[in-house]
Amino acid sequence: MAKKNDEIKQVDAAMPQTPDPFWPAGVAPRHLSVGKQSESAIVAPYLTVTGPIWHCEKCHGTVDKNAADPRYCNSCYELETQNSSVAKKMNSSWMDEAGLLGLELFERQPEETNLEWRIWETYRSYYPRKMPTWNELADACESSVVTVVKTAAKWSFKVRLMSWSRFTDEGIQEKRIAAIKEMNVNQLSMAQTIQEKLKTAIEILDPTLLRPGEIVNLFKVATELERKITTYVDEKVESESLAGKNKGLTLTKAEDLNEVVAILQKTGLLDNKTIGIEQTTRIIAKED
Predict the structure, then answer these.
(1) Model pTM?
(2) Which pLDDT score, from 0 to 100, does residue 42 have?
């Protein structure tokens, strides 16, 4: 009995104790053991998951929300604080002064010289492409490598670039979603227009002017559509190239030929004619 209880505890420890972001609201955690399901502290989060899920701005995680800065999780907040602390060693007051003046970190600061601003502006212009090395940046700014390195350390280029990336990337995802929705609407409109044209073309068809081969093809299309609508059976989809290769090898079934002959007789196209079916599955209509 004790061994069985230990196994249950091991299984419970391996199971998730909190719901993931896609857990449906109000659904009990049936994956847990009976003992865990009886604990209200564990079951309650599963039954109360409603509304939007919080995400960390840096890693997009959904757990460990930081109390000091709700934009980040605890890990990302520590990393952000560490980067800021390292960046402030050489120019410890410029970030605080920028905050007091209402300036973003990527904007020009009051004490930033023309050369320093030109180096930073050239550096951030590479984003989101591959960022340059200090040697490449020095060549682009026509400056020495030593000056570029000192400027990057003084004005915290790495931290500054994160602020610039958040600013430039803001709203891009919403624009992409809007573009995809617009594309889907356009494609749906085109498909509906084509369907209407096809419907009009079918309605004006004159059966007496159709050749036997055209009637057979229309019959096959109508039968296939009816089968798909009434059965809901997934069928194998082949590429156009493969279908073209196998087209000449496909033979019409005997029962389908009998139905085709019956249709042709109803149209009156086979009056006073002898019907014969060859092994090539071609329908031959000859005069008496």
Answers:
(1) 0.35
(2) 77
